[in-house]
Amino acid sequence: MGILFDMDGVIADTNPFHKVSIQQFCKRHGIETSDEFLREKVYGRVNKEWIPNLFGELKPSEIEKLAAEKEQLFRELYAPHLQAVEGLIEFLRRLQKRKIKAAVATSAPLENVDFILDGLNIRSYFQAILHSADVERGKPDPEIYLKAAEALDEYAEDCIVIEDSISGVQAGKAAGAKVIAITTTHDADEFGPVNLVIEDFKGLWVDDLLYL
C-alpha cells in the first residue's frame, strides 16, 4: 500500500494564499478573475494549463516566465504563514512507524515543493516526490498518480490518494486508487463519491487506511 499526497490544500493550506497571489498577479496584468474561474480552471492544475486561459496562446518560454512570477509572489505571501495542515506531521509519523510508503504528487512547481517540504522539515517522510515537471498532463488526468504509485513500486489500485481539489479527486479515481477528500478547499458535497472525507488529519489512523 502507498499513500499519495497532493500538496497544496493537503500538506499545507496554501490555497487562500494562492488565490491572493493569483488575484495580485492578474491585477498586475490588467486581468480580472472570479472564484468560479479559480475553482474550475486553476486549483489542482499546472501553470502551463491555466495561464493560457488568462492570456491566450503563448510560447512555452512566456508561460514559464509568467508562472515563475506568480509562484514567487505566492512564496513571498505565504512564507510568514507556513504551517502544516492540523495533524499532518503526527499522521506522517504513524505511517513511518507502520512502514507504509508515502509520496507527494503535486501540480506545483519544484520551487514550491522545496519551499513547503523543507520549510516544514517533512521531506524525509516521503519515498517519492513528483511535481509539475514530472508530467505532461495535469489533473484531472491520472498521469501523476499513476507515476507516483509506480515510484513507490505499487499498483495505483493499492494506493490511497489524499486530495483537496475536485480535479485531483477525479485524477485519483481515474488512476484506480482509493480517494480521501480533505475539506480545506471544498465542502464535502462538492467532491462526489469518495471513499472517505476528512477535515484534517487529527482523526485519521493507519487502521482507517487499511480498512479502505
What does this structure look like?
The chain has 212 residues and is of the alpha/beta class. The chain has helices at 15-28, 35-42, 47-55, 60-78, 88-97, 110-120, 143-151, 166-175, 206-211, and strands at residues 2-5, 101-105, 128-130, 159-163, 178-182, 196-198. The chain contains 9 helices and 6 strands; from the N terminus they run βαααααβαβαβαββα. A 6-stranded parallel beta sheet has the order 3-2-1-4-5-6, sandwiched between helices. The chain has 2 domains: 2-13 and 82-211, HAD superfamily/HAD-like (Rossmann fold), CATH 3.40.50.1000; 15-80, DNA polymerase, domain 1.
> Could you name the CATH topology of the largest domain?
Rossmann fold
* Count of distinct strands: 6
Largest sheet: 6 strands, parallel
Poorly predicted spans: none
Shape: globular
